[in-house]
Structure formats: structure tokens, C-alpha cells
Amino acid sequence: MTLKAARDLVREAERLVVLSGAGLSAESGLSTYRGAGGYWRQHRATDLATPEAFERDPALVWEWYSERRRAALEALPNPAHHALASFQEQRGRDRVALVTQNVDGLLQRAGAPEVLELHGSLFRVRCSARCGGECHDERTPWPHPVPCAACGAPLRPGVVWFGESLPELVYASAIDLASSADVVLVVGTSAVVQPAAGLAAIGAQHGAAVVEVNLEPTPLSGSVNVSLLAAAGEVLPVLLAP
Ligand code: APR
User: Which of 82, 99, 201, 220 could form a Cys-Cys staple with 116, CB 3.0–4.6 A?
Assistant: First the structure.
């Protein structure tokens, strides 16, 4: 019953917002953060994913992000990415919004027309002094600690670190999308990192039905309309099939 209920909700949605996390890319072979084998089980986030970590040891931080970029480039989109990309392509970006915490670019590589990246991307770098002088994109050879050509401060990965705010325009768009959704589909996130995790609640407060697909229960699970404890790569193709 729950899979059918979820499928009906998602397929009948006029404005579907999909909020995804690292679990969406797990079946592509990329590590999650908090699950078994997750990054924060092997490293301290404060050693790698904070402005202080970068200031303390930029080479170590670059090394970790270069390794993650390599892994992401080697990974292939899995059936969940393809199901979401196809659904957005078929229904259009006005009816299906893909909002992700992931920085791996796999939804785009699956052909998704538009992805809102809340936490930035492994494939962008920017000036650490925010001089705005440079914003490299994936075509730029991946720089190790090199100075910004405009101001000389070190370039840094174009991702959002702990203790940093989300890009204002990106977050404002995400709130608008969640507030006007009639269905929010949450996929592969432990729903513990704010403000991203709060988007589903914003949707629910504005009347949206919430469907969760996750391998294990999360703080959201008790309050969603339908909770599917399953792998994204198995469930999404069924949920979103024509
Ligand atoms: N299908 C569905 N869910 C899965 C799968 C899968 N194949 N594999 C793992 N999961 C679930 C895990 O059970 C876990 O609940 O995905 C969730 C991943 O949670 P996290 O590792 O915490 O990742 P995420 O929620 O994306 O983290 C949010 O925290 O460290 C920061 O910036 C980082 O964007 C990240 C944010």
C-alpha cells in the first residue's frame, strides 16, 4: 500500500520538490557521511570541511576534495538519478524541482535539466577571500592551493562548509520551492543538517504531502505522509515510472 500511495502522490503532484542527500549517490559507489563507512566515520568533519580546516591546512583539504572529485568523475549515475532526471525532463522544471545537498554532479550527468545545489559543487572553486575575482568551473584543471589571480588569496573548493551559510539566492529559491510544493519527496538524507533538513517541514507547513525514501528511519520519518525504508536505486524507478 505505501509504495502505491507514494506513487500516486508523486505522480499526481502539480509541483513536486525532490530534496536529496548522499544516499541518492550511494548506489553509484560514493560514500555517504553518517552511514556505515561514511566520511564522518573515517575523518573528523572539522579537519576537512570547515573554513578553519582550510586555513590550517589547505593542502590536506584540497587533497580530500581532489580525491572526492576523482571518485565522483569515475562514478556513474544510478537508476535513481536517471529516474529523477527523466521525470523532470518529462514534466518540466516548473513541475519538478530537484534540490540536492550533494556536490557530486550526478543528477546533471543523468541529464537533469536543472538542479539546485544547496551545498555547492565539487566541480567549482572560488576565491577564499570572496573577492569575486574568479569562479572556476569543471573545465578548469583542478587547482591545488593556488592563488586567486584577481587578489592572491588561495582558491578553495566551491562547496558550503560547516559553519558557513548557504548561498543566499540558492536558499531563498529552495524555500520558495518548498513553500509552493504540493508534494515533497525526500531521498537519501539523514535529515540532520540544517537548514536543508528543514525544507521538508516548510513544505508540510504549507500543505505539502511528504514522501521519504531512505534506507533507515530519520528524524523526519515519524512526521511524513509516507516513509519507504528502501534503496533509492530500487524504489525511485518504480515510483516515477510512466
Ligand atoms: N538509498 C536510500 N537511502 C540511502 C542509501 C540508498 N541506497 N544509502 C544510504 N542511505 C541513507 C542513509 O541511511 C542515511 O540516512 O542516506 C542517508 C545519508 O545521510 P548522510 O550520510 O548524513 O548524508 P546527507 O544527509 O546528505 O548529509 C547532509 O551533511 O556533511 C554534510 O554537507 C554534507 O550535504 C551533506 C550534509
Answer: 99
> Among this protein's residues, is 119 annotated catalytic?
yes
Which amino acid is present at 129?
A: A
pTM: 0.96
Domain ranges of the chain: 1-30+77-119+166-242, 31-74+120-159
Looking at the CA of residue 196, tell me the nearest atom of ligand 1: 28
Tell which CATH classification among 3.40.50.300, 3.90.550.60, 3.40.50.1220, 3.30.1780.10 matches the domain 1-30+77-119+166-242.
3.40.50.1220
Query: What does the pLDDT read at residue 106?
Result: 98
Q: How many CB atoms are located within 10 Å of the residue 146 CB?
A: 12
The 10 Å Cβ neighbour count of residue 145 is 16
Whole-number pLDDT of residue 41 = 84
Q: Which atom of ligand 1 is nearest to the CA of 38?
A: 21
> Looking at the predicted structure, is the pLDDT value of residue 210 above 90?
yes
Angle (nearest 5°) at CA 180 between 11 and 232: 45
The percentage of the chain sitting over the pLDDT mark of 70, rounded to a whole number, equals 95
